[in-house]
Amino acid sequence: MAIKPTKSEKKVMYDQKLCKYLDSYNQILIVNADNVGSSQMQGIRKGLRGDSVVLMGKNTMMKRSVRIHAGNTGNDAFLNLIPLLVGNVGLIFTKGDLKEIKEEVAKYKVGAPARVGLIAPVDVIVPPGNTGLDPSQTSFFQVLNIATKINKGTVEIITPVELIKKGDKVGSSEAALLSKLGIRPFSYGLVVISVYDNGSVFSPQVLDLTDEDLVEKFAAGVTMITTLSLAISYPTLAAAPHMIVNGYKNVLGVAVVTEYTYPQAQQVKEYLKDPSKFAVAIAVVAESATTSQGIVETEDKKEEEAESEEDDAMFGLFDD
């Protein structure tokens, strides 16, 4: 018969395992494990088997092991984990893609009934329609001020009802009604609350960013830098083109209202003196564009006709 390890021996084994994972993995997902059952956890471990391992434990024990290991290795980056170890949390050590691991974990959520005293994680809305309950059950609906009617010998809810709001405690009447209706409004699973990557800690929402999101944020940053640079007249790579254009506009403005001139300004002055020249220039450009388009269309038509003649000739070779 195998001898079971003592409590102190279990602590030593746990400490060794945690330190081993800290040295072997550079990426860690900190997950909340509220209302996650043992069978559900077993399925998650099985689904992540390969590049990832799940480690649960008491926060005080994890904090102590992390603090001591950071001191022994001189790697103070491990200390960034300590403020994250609050509440019912666990650690997923991984070498895989963080976004894929997060999505894999989300697959293992299971539906759960609304038990009395639970804090509702989402709004619970009872849809209208036939409940299948007999008229003797109307007392549940009356207590909760739910409008009903009797239809074909069963209770029917007339309008949608917001039974429980997110953050409220589930009462006994609400729990009983949802149980009778067969509604399991909540779902629970491991929820990623923070990400640790090579010493850096960030929100899991970062993992959902796409390339388009990054480009959009980069463009917004460039716009802010450009605006600030223009406001304080400080040249930057982003603002330089605008500064040159604005400077040219100032020079052109001075030339227009004075006798000073240069070729580009002279053309603008002529347009201001005789606006009809500007209209003629636009008409010439439009006509040129139309002519170019007509030439292209003609050439395309000729190519199509040539291809059609070639096809006819090829088919003719095989005619009886």
UniProtKB/TrEMBL annotation:
SUPFAM superfamilies from the entry?
A: Ribosomal protein L10-like
Which keywords label this protein?
Ribonucleoprotein, Ribosomal protein
Which CDD domains does the record associate with it?
Answer: Ribosomal_P0_L10e
Could you tell me which Pfam families the record lists for this protein? Ribosomal_60s, Ribosomal_L10, RL10P_insert
Q: In the UniProt record, does the keyword Transit peptide occur? A: no
- Which InterPro entries does this UniProt record tie to the protein? Ribosomal_protein_uL10, Ribosomal_uL10, Ribosomal_uL10-like_insert, Ribosomal_uL10-like_insert_sf, Ribosomal_uL10-like_sf, uL10_eukaryotes
Q: Where is this region: Disordered?
A: 293-320
Record's superkingdom? Eukaryota
The Acidic residues compositionally biased stretches are 305-320
KW Ribosomal protein (keyword) present: yes
| Boundaries of every Large ribosomal subunit protein uL10-like insertion domain copy | 114-183
Q: Which family does the record claim for this protein?
A: Belongs to the universal ribosomal protein uL10 family.
Q: Per its database record, what is this protein's job?
A: Ribosomal protein P0 is the functional equivalent of E.coli protein L10.
Q: How does it assemble?
A: P0 forms a pentameric complex by interaction with dimers of P1 and P2.
Query: In its UniProt entry, what is this protein called?
Result: 60S acidic ribosomal protein P0
Q: To which species is this protein native? A: Solanum pennellii
